[in-house]
Amino acid sequence: MVSITETQKIGVGLTGFGLFFLLFGVLLYFDSVLLAFGNVLFLAGLAFIIGLRRTAGFFFQRQKLRGSTFFLGGVALVLFRCPIIGMAVESYGFVLLFRSFFPVAFGLILSLVNIPYLNVGNSSSMV
């Protein structure tokens, strides 16, 4: 079993609250204060979960530099009170940064949710 440190538990909480504030800021018609707070909490939570050095290493890898530029530029635009443009730029950067992770996440979700017609790998479960 993988042991999770107290710092990582705090990071999961910060990331969760960050995502909550981002969602709440979008639902309240792109409230710039909530979006900025959500961005700061999300980035702080990511740093707590994987550490400062690995976070910096993740964002500044050569192949992810374009996505990092868009993502952090979008965060800066939200902080400078241009929430709609900032969220669009940040979303594009998020997709560029995490595009290699999406198939893994979708595979995990599909393995947790047992929907027979979506589970392509196991044809015996279809009736």
TrEMBL record:
It holds the Pfam family Got1. The chain crosses the membrane at residues 12-30, 36-56, 68-89, 101-120. Keywords: Golgi apparatus, Membrane, Transmembrane, Transmembrane helix. It is found in: Golgi apparatus membrane. Belongs to the GOT1 family. May be involved in fusion of ER-derived transport vesicles with the Golgi complex. This is Golgi transport 1A. It comes from Hucho hucho (huchen).
